[in-house]
Amino acid sequence: MEKLEHIGIAVKNLEESNRLFAKLLGKPHYKIEEVASEGVRTSFFDVGGVKIELLEATRPDSPIATFIEKKGEGIHHLAFGVSQLETEMKAKSDEGFTLLAQQPKDGADNKRIVFLHPKTTNGVLVEMCEDKK
Ligand code: ZN
Question: What is the pTM of this model?
């Protein structure tokens, strides 16, 4: 893991939360992006190089909808940037962490991503992400 890349926050209403976080952070979001395959619409804020990713479900079976149903709005995941995603996936798997997918998926913000199961990371959903080349 090379840096804390972003913090993902599950929200019910992206427009309302964009306004709230713009007020909180003192700056507007810099992009909105839908990831249809994951059933989410995201917006991004840059805070000194670490991003805040707001996540809104676009369909009832979206992982974000399930999360909000169970736990309510709030911090959903921490994302760490890596430069060799496949190497990092193998290393983490060998060290006993459970990967939620065996292949990276396309994430928002021009990233390839994979998640580690929270049961192996002290209850924290961890994303590893790599810039698409
Ligand atoms: Zn993320």
Answer: 0.94
